[in-house]
Amino acid sequence: MKQICVIGVGYVGIVTGACFADLGNKVVALDVNEKRVENLKKGIMPIYEPGLDELVKRNVKAGRLSFTTDYAEAVNGSEFAFIAVGTPSGVKGEADLQYVAAAAKSIAENMTEPLIIINKSTVPIGTGDWVADIVRRSQPKPIDFAVVSCPEFLREGSAIGDFMQPHRTVIGSFDRDAASKVAQLHLPLRAPIVITDLRTAEMIKYASNAFLATKISFINEIADICEALGADVKEVAAGMGYDARIGRHFLDAGLGWGGSCFPKDVLALAYMAEEAGLEPRILNTVMDVNYERRKTAVSITAEMIGGSLSGKTIGLLGLAFKPNTDDMRDAPSIDIANELNVAGASVRGYDPVAMEVARGILPAVQMYTDPYEMAQGCDALMVVTEWNEFKQLDLDKIKGLLNTPVIYDGRNIYDPARMKDMGFKYRAIGR
Ligand code: UDX
Ligand code: UDX
Predict the structure, then answer these.
(1) Residue where a domain stops, chosen among 176, 196, 216
(2) Which protein residues are within 6 Å of ligand 1, measured from CB?
(3) Residue 212 lies in a domain
(4) Three-state SS letters, 323-352
(5) Does 115 lie in the same domain as 13?
(6) How far apart are CA 268 and CA 3, in angstroms?
(7) Could you tell me the CATH number of the domain that includes residue 399?
(8) How many CA atoms, within 13 angstroms, populate the side-chain half-sphere of residue 329?
(9) Is 261 buried (19+), middle (13-18) or exposed (0-12) by CB count in 10 A?
(10) I need a surface site. Which of 7, 27, 63, 309 has the fewest CB within 10 A?
C-alpha cells in the first residue's frame, strides 16, 4: 500500500489515479481546476469514460481515493507523484509544456521528503531532464528526488481496460532504485516491464503512437487504391491481419484519426525531428494523407447529391473523434462541418454522448437529440463516428425521412450490397 499523488485529473489523470487506488494504493488526485475537483467530490466525472463512474465511487468510498486543489495535501506523505497534466500542441506543433513546468514547480515547492516524480503525460524527448532541473531549482531546500518517465498507452473509451491489462509498462530512469520502485508499483498488472533510460522511454511513447497513426494512414491509402481497382479494403485488412507481423488492429479504413493524442504526438515528433535538422518525410506524409480524407469526404458527398452543397442540408451521424468518448479534440466532424458550411450547406449533428461538448465547438451545427428527427428533410447523411447504435438504425425509416436516400459511410459500418438493395445512393471507403 503506497501513497501516490496524481497531478491533473483529465482523461489520463483520473483513470491513472482511480486504477492505482483500485490496486490498493492510497491516491490523492489534484487539479488546478476547482470546479473539476468540486464535481469529483460530488461524484460528478470530468469526462465520459465507460466504467469510470463506478470505479471512482467505489474507491472514494473505500477511502483510497480523494481529490484536492492543494499541493501540500497532495504531495505530503506521497512516495510517488504522477504528472498527468495536458501537453497540447503549441503554434509550431511543438508540445506546450507550460503545465508540466507548473506541476513540477508546485511539487518541488511542497515536497517535504524524498519523492519519485513520474511523467505520465506524453512529453518530448529530453523533458525528464528538464523537469529535474525545474525541481532542483524550485526546492526551498535540497531534498532527494528522481524523475521517471512512465508513459500512458490508454485509449479513450477503453482506458480502464488498457490500464489494467497493458501490453507493457515502460519505465525510463537513470536512477535504478527509483525505476525498480516504480516497477514494484506496476507488478500487480502482471505485464512485461521495459526498464530503460529516460529519453528512450519518452521516445517509445512517441514512436508507438506515430506508428499506429502510420498504420491507419497506410490502410487509408490502400483503401483509395482498392476503390480505384475494385478490391474490398475490409477483406484486404482481414487478409493482412492474419500475419502476426502485421496484426489486424488499426487497419480500419475510414475518415482517419483525430483525438488528443495522435494529432499532437505525430506533429510533436515531426517537429522534434525538424528541430534536429532531419526531414521526417514519412511522418509528414502520414499527416497529409490523414487530413486530406476530411475534405475528400465532403467532395464525394457533394458529388452524390448532384454536385453542389449550396442550400442543401447534411446530417452528421456522430461527432466525437471516436465512439465511447465525449472527446471532440481534433475530431474529423469539426473539419467536415466547417467544409460543409463553407460550401453553403446547412449542417445538422447527432452524437449519443458528445453533444454538449460539441455544441460549444460547432456553433453553426444544428444539434438533434434523435437521429431520425435529424434525418427528416436531410439531402444526405454522413457517418462520421462508428457508434454501435448507428449499426442498429432502422434504415428503411431513415430512407423515408431523407429528401434523397444518400449516405456517405465514413466508417464502413454498413454493408454495401444491402444498402444497394434498399435503394440508397451509398458510398463506403475502399469497398
Ligand atoms: C493530455 C493528452 O491527452 C495526453 O496524451 C497527454 O499524455 C497528457 O495530456 P489529458 O488527460 O487528455 O492528457 O489532458 P486533459 O484532459 O487536458 O487534462 C489535463 C488536466 O490537467 C486538466 O484537468 C487540467 O485542469 C489539469 N491541469 C492543467 C492541472 O492540474 N495543472 C496545471 O497546471 C494544468
Ligand atoms: C491513442 C492510442 O491508441 C493510445 O495507445 C495512446 O495512449 C493515446 O492515443 P486514442 O487516441 O484514445 O488512443 O484512440 P484510438 O482508439 O487509438 O483511435 C485514435 C484515432 O484513430 C481515432 O480517431 C480513431 O477513429 C482512429 N482509428 C483507429 C482509425 O481510423 N482506424 C483504426 O483502425 C483505429
Answers:
(1) 196
(2) 7-13, 31-33, 36, 84-87, 99, 102-103, 121-122, 152, 260-261
(3) no
(4) CCCCCCCCCHHHHHHHHHHHCCCEEEEECC
(5) yes
(6) 33
(7) 3.40.50.720
(8) 15
(9) buried
(10) 63
Residue 108: pLDDT band (50, 70, 90) is very high
Is 88 part of any domain?
yes
Residue 2 reports pLDDT greater than 90:
no
Residues 294 and 176 occupy one common structural domain: no
With a cut of 80, say whether residue 323 has pLDDT above it: yes
Atom number in ligand 2 closest to CA 159: 12
**Can you give the residue range of the structural domain that contains 378?**
286-427
Number of domains the chain contains: 2
Cβ atoms of 19 and 63 within 8 Å: the answer is: no
Q: Average pLDDT of 174-183?
A: 96
Residue 174: burial class (beta carbons within 10 Å; 0-12, 13-18, 19+): middle
* Residue-averaged pLDDT of the chain: 97
Q: Which of 123, 154, 155 to mutate to test the pocket of ligand 2 (most atoms within 8 A of CB)?
A: 155
Q: 114 C-alpha vs ligand 2 centroid, how far in Å?
A: 37
What pLDDT is stored for residue 158 in this prediction? 96
Q: Are residues 187 and 290 in the same domain?
A: no
Query: Which segments within 155-256 are labelled E, that is strand?
Result: 169-172, 193-196
- The pairing of strands 380-383 and 313-317 is parallel
Whether the pTM exceeds 0.90: the reply is yes
Q: Is 261 a residue of the active site?
A: yes
Nearest protein CA to atom 3 of ligand 1, as residue = 260
d(CA 17, CA 360): 28
Query: Are residues 188 and 68 part of one domain?
Result: yes
Secondary structure of 10-41 in the HEC alphabet?
A: CHHHHHHHHHHHHCCCEEEEECCCHHHHHHHH
Q: What's the whole-number mean pLDDT along residues 401-412?
A: 98
Q: Which of 167, 196, 225 is the last residue of a domain?
A: 196
User: Which residues line the pocket of ligand 2, CB cutoff 6 A?
Assistant: 152-156, 209, 212, 216, 250-252, 254, 256-259, 261-262, 321-322
- Indicate which ligand has the atom closest to the C-alpha of 124: 1
Instruction: Kindly state the cell numbers that stand for 92.
Output: 509550431
Answer whether residue 268 is part of any domain. Answer: no
Cell of 379: 439531402
CA atoms of 99 and 378, how far apart (whole Å): 44
Is residue 156 over pLDDT 90? Answer: yes
Residue with cell 465547438: 361
Is 267 inside any structural domain? no
What is the gyration radius of the CA atoms in the chain, in angstroms? 23
Cα(14)–Cα(56) distance, rounded to whole angstroms? 8
